[in-house]
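hey can u run this one w/ protoporphyrin IX containing FE bound, need the structure tokens asap thx
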Amino acid sequence: MTDIKNRDDLLFLMQEFYSTMLKDEEIGYIFTDVAKLDLKHHLPLLADFWNNALFHTGGYKNNVVQIHKNLDVLEKLTPEHFKRWQFLLIASVDANFTGEISEKMKLRASQIGMTIQAKLGHYS
Ligand code: HEM
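ok here u go:
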């Protein structure tokens, strides 16, 4: 296994992550039934987000906290939802990549998850 190297790796990883997440009994419905995501549109934005977060490429300008605040109005995002999201992200990274950037991605995901939860105001 190799480390995450570029945006192509991140797009592949997001496809893997979402293929498990959309089928997940605990949080899958948030993507399919609540947000009704168009993956063709959504996954490239996530690849841009992670490309910037891990490789400082610029090119991602959306407000991630606000996006989840809007989602939280439609369906309350609980600490359990975040734990499950985190678990599935770690499983997807570990199944496909290994190395320094992979570790950094898991750490950043946890930190950003904490930030989003704190800003939602129902952190526990
Ligand atoms: C309970 C946990 C989470 C759930 C259920 C969730 C779900 C979603 C959904 C449904 C969207 C699309 C919203 C829309 O466009 O209508 C979204 C967007 C996004 N999520 Fe999450 N999310 C979670 C946690 C996280 C975390 C921890 C991160 C980052 C580490 C993250 C990163 C993103 C990004 C970057 C976008 C925006 C992509 C864009 O449109 O620019 N999410 N999330």
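The chain has a mean pLDDT of 96. anyway lmk if its weird
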